[in-house]
Amino acid sequence: MTLVALDSLIQAAKAGQLVSFPTDTVPALAAKPECADLIFQAKQRSQDKPLILMGATPEDLWTYCQGTDSELAIWQRVADQFWPGALTLVLPASDRVPRVMNPLDPTTLGMRVPNSAIALEILAQTGPLATTSANLSGQPPLLEGSEIDLAFPQAQILSPACCENQAPPSKLPSTVAKWTGKGWETLRQGSVQLLSSN
């Protein structure tokens, strides 16, 4: 069993290991951005499916994207309205983003601040992490630590005992919206309704 306490999971993530923890949607499989290949290998995930960068605050994420001052102001307004929450924004990537995050199109990056106290506590200490749902590619998301442990024996998985006082996750994936340069294009509709173009 690789179910671990919070401090152990944070240290494992900092050391470049694969970890798993709850979020406000479904449990995440996560690693440092430069170690994102661990996620692709563990999930048997196609390289045309990029990962999401999850951070504790919008400010932690903005250095991983690039835009004009007016674009940054628009993105900040959306972040103020919906983060933390189940909205993933796909934005132009800066040169700080390791190519392994999105191997086939390193010019864009999905990013999110989850509405989960335990996830935010982890991310505040590790810095932004490359994330995706904890499941083998093409399979339904795994929801229990014991299931994740069986599927990913190489990962350090947060013990359920650390999460007893957390709000229950929605079990729905996040809404994914891509910035087109002029407005937002919804790539996947989840629980968040992003109606405005700005």
UniProtKB/TrEMBL annotation:
Pfam families per UniProt: Sua5_yciO_yrdC
GO MF term set: ATP binding; double-stranded RNA binding; L-threonylcarbamoyladenylate synthase; tRNA binding
Domain YrdC-like: 3-192
Keywords: ATP-binding, Cytoplasm, Nucleotide-binding, Nucleotidyltransferase, Transferase, tRNA processing
GO biological process: regulation of translational fidelity; tRNA processing
Location relative to the cell: Cytoplasm
Domain of life assignment: Bacteria
PROSITE patterns assigned: YRDC (PS51163)
UniProt cross-references to InterPro entries, sorted A to Z: DHBP_synth_RibB-like_a/b_dom, Sua5-like_dom, TC-AMP_synthase_SUA5
One GO cellular component term: cytoplasm
EC number: 2.7.7.87
Reaction(s) the record says it catalyses: L-threonine + hydrogencarbonate + ATP = L-threonylcarbamoyladenylate + diphosphate + H2O
Main location: cytoplasm
Family of this protein: Belongs to the SUA5 family.
PANTHER family registered for this protein in UniProt: SUA5, THREONYLCARBAMOYL-AMP SYNTHASE
Descriptive protein name: L-threonylcarbamoyladenylate synthase
Organism: Desertifilum tharense IPPAS B-1220
Upper lineage: Bacteria, Bacillati, Cyanobacteriota, Cyanophyceae, Desertifilales
